[in-house]
Amino acid sequence: MLDLAPHLLAGLEISTLPQQLVTGLLIGTIYALVALGYTMVYGVLKLINFAHGEVFMLGAYAALLISWSLGYTPGNSLEHGSWMALILMLIGAMIVCALIGMIIERLAYRPMRNQARIASLITAIGVSLFLQYGGQIFLLNGTPQNIDPKVSPFYSSDPTVGNIQLTIKGPNKELLAKADQMSSLVDKAKTDYEAELKLEGGDEFNLQPKGKELRDLYRKEQRDLESAKNDANKGAILVNLPKGQVFMLGSVLIIMVGLTWLVMFTRQGRAMRAVSLDFDSASLMGINVNAVVTFTFALGSSLAGAGAMMAATFQSGTKIDTFFGVLPGVKAFVAAVLGGIGNIPGAVLGGILMGLAENLVVWAGYGGYKDAIAFVILIAILLFKPGGLLGSAKVEKV
Amino acid sequence: MNLLKLDKATIKFGGLIAVNEVSFEINKGDLFGLIGPNGAGKTTCFNLITGVYKPTSGQISFDGRDITGTPANKIANLGIARTFQNIRLFKSMSVLENVVTAGYLRHKTSMASAFFYLPSAIKENEQLKEEAMKLLEVVDLAHVADVRSCDLAYGMQRRLEIARAMATQPQLLLLDEPAAGMNPQEKEELNAMVKKIRDHHNMTVLLIEHDMRFVMSLCEKIFVLDHGEEICFGPPEKVRNDPKVIAAYLGEAV
Amino acid sequence: MKFLATRVLSILAAIGFSFLVQKLAEGQDSFTQQLLVLASLYVTLSVSLNLINGITGQFSIGHAAFYQVGAYAAAYCGTAFYPNWHGSPVVWLLLMLVVGGIVAAIAGFIVGLPSLRLKGDYLAVVTMGFGEIVRIVVQNQKVLGESGGLSVHPHLQQIWVVVLLAILCIALCRNLQITAHGLPFLAVREDEVASAAMGVNVTKTKVIAFVLGSGFAGAAGAAYALQLGAINPDLFRMDQSFIILTMVVLGGTGSVTGSVLAALLLFYIPEKMRDLSDVRLSVLVSILISVGFAVAAVRYVINNVHKPIKVRAAYYAGITAVTAVVITILGKILQLVPAFQTSVEGGKLRLVVFAGVLIVLMLIRPEGIFAHHEFSWDWLLSPLKKKRTKLPGVSA
Ligand SMILES: Nc1ncnc2c1ncn2[C@@H]1O[C@H](COP(=O)(O)OP(=O)(O)OP(=O)(O)O)[C@@H](O)[C@H]1O
Ligand SMILES: [Mg+2]
Predict the structure, then answer these.
(1) B13 lines ligand 1 (CB under 6 A)
(2) Is the minimum distance from the CB of B42 to ligand 1 under 6 angstroms?
């Protein structure tokens, strides 16, 4: 009764798999950035910060507004952008998000700190809805906008230029040569047909027999060329890496290394880890917990800002509206739980797995289920490992 | 015949052997003491007996029936009830409700009768409340029956734990440090109370306690644990003078 | 005998009340009728979620899934079997409530099972995930109309049915709570280890809570489908679950009356906002700022002023008055700023106000309107009585 398997085994295209995996990895790194924010806040406060997705959304708006202030408003006629523009947008989004995160914590979460966990959770949901719908009033009237891709220095109007192309297995050379020969035939048929068309008055739908004949020939040649090309490319495995996304991957790696250093080797990081192990004892040991919590929110939110800037700039066709953070937020949250919430490497692992899984599902032909797969994996894993992949389930001492 | 029997019960937590091949038997009507220094594995023994943990190896039987690995609620059904060292009352419920909850075992009416508020459920409800009140009188808490349990003073909470355990009508009652945090006078009263429970309510009592005077004056048999292993077993006089026990408590080599 | 008399009387009263509502509604416009239906459904949903979350303490945030399962069960049965149905449509409606309830209860059983292994936030994510999975799977099923949804046969507006369903749900939960059978549920919420040691079958208790709670949500879903005449997956998004959850927490987790009240409140405010005309941005901003300060002031009074309730009530009244004045004045001042002179569609404010009310209420009364209490006249009047009854023998 359920149409769960319309495509099952009916032609999984191996040659597109590597591309999908790479795309998945790239998306996964963004999930990972956002998941880090969830996991760090959870670590210190044991609070699911449902408004984190909205911080992400506001980060995207920050990047958008910065790009506008640099002149990349809708319909501008500027040339392509510069590294400076990208970096300004990235840092700007991170700072804005850090501030927003701190404000949310101070106004909405700190007063709830000694209350039942579910009460702070509801407050978080309230903040999230407030930002989503309040944003519709204050943020460009809620009209979806996109960041002009020209702001990136790697931009080119031809989508095939400016990509790094990795060839895992090239096309069949002989067949390719044959196809090349055919393309001259096609050109000839085309000119013939067009000349005849002109002669007959230019009405495509009202051709003389000769025109029809030439048109059919032209179409046949075209079809032949297509199938020849297909034959040549059958078995070829190519991976396209837009340079912008390489930039993105690089930035994510740098941010993660920085974060690891911060958490593992600095005073502030040590304080954070102490607070996450035991909130009360840490405060008794003279750690300023409020400062640590504020810092954690600032840090986590700035990562969301970075993720948002990249998602909005380098994923072509991304529209930003006030609900922009909902899906990434939910998925990143699931990623954090998947890795073991409160666990920093876990969040990264969870995020990347999530990105990969999603794209595998699309590759397998179940695109409609893309947004469900996150949860399916999550439930499956939690049933066997209730603490998440890298987390350990706490055993209650009796 | 013995009521409870541990046969080489062992449990490991990772590398730590919290209880190592511990064997003892408790007879009906015993007042049995379990002592040992901090971290000796006493509470863990209780957890094994009541099904909170499953032993790594060994066997536990109750009333002639093997209960190794039986779920906690089934063990309670069979007639073992306990109190907790770190008090685990149902905090936001009233004192009376705490005790009535433990009487749940003896519900005869079905849940459906409660949904439709049938006379049988109402009647049973009243009955359970009455029984609970009687138990509260035994532990001298009847006057606070409607107070939220987390608002009680510490000593009262311990007594409520006992009343709650008794409400399951167990044959064997396990008390984990019932006198902890009580002043001498309260301990005195508790001593009398435990004796009364054993004599008038026909319950066998196994208790953990650090206060030596309390244990020695109350228990007829005492089992001493150290580092998860038995170091001594016998009547108070024997235990009191055992060099191993003295060493374990004073931290000397024998 | 007395029992039988009161019982029969109360059942008659419930049915009578439902029909009274129906009669009263018939004179009204269809919007009001729709409002009544939805309000009753939300009451059912929040009271049933309260059984899982509030009373049993299981952190479920995917209640809309069961609502959806019930709705689709009814819609599917309507398409498949109603054409061959020869009985009265009302009987069909009642039958669908049962079917929706049972199918959703089975779903609840399936979700309840993992709840045995998972706690707290992990359970929360799983329930949320289940909600999303259900919605997305439905979206991809041809027989269920994919994202376009299904039209439901028969389309029946029977207000009394939903009112009666809400009453039934409230009555069952209340009955459970006032007999000893309800205590194990509370015990599981308070302490699982201790409940098990007292003989409570924790597994069974949790599963029963899930099955019952989702069963009622399913029945509500079926009623919804038939009242609405057409359903689609978008009606059951995650925010739907959040709204139901909010009703429970806002009313006071564990309090049935609280859930009812919060459901009505949270439902009524946004619906009322629909007919709001345009609002000036200056007014909005001044409300935002003043309410912020008012909340801070109220919190200050709650935490730092330990005076009799009458004095505190006077403080609150004062704060309210000052806030009202400030809003007016600030609004006038801000009106001078050009950026604030635009106006905002009232309809856009619906969910903003919803979210705002939610945050404010949580900040000033995090335990919920009713906390753990149930409504009773004694409770309502207790602050007015001069002396609190002192707890005998309890030291501070
Ligand atoms: N769930 C658990 N996981 C890991 N170790 C545990 C667990 N429960 C108990 N232990 C360890 O087992 C040992 C015995 O603990 P137990 O609580 O039984 O001691 P005890 O004799 O009751 O001590 P006390 O007198 O302090 O109550 C301790 O080292 C404790 O840390
Ligand atoms: Mg102990």
Answers:
(1) yes
(2) yes
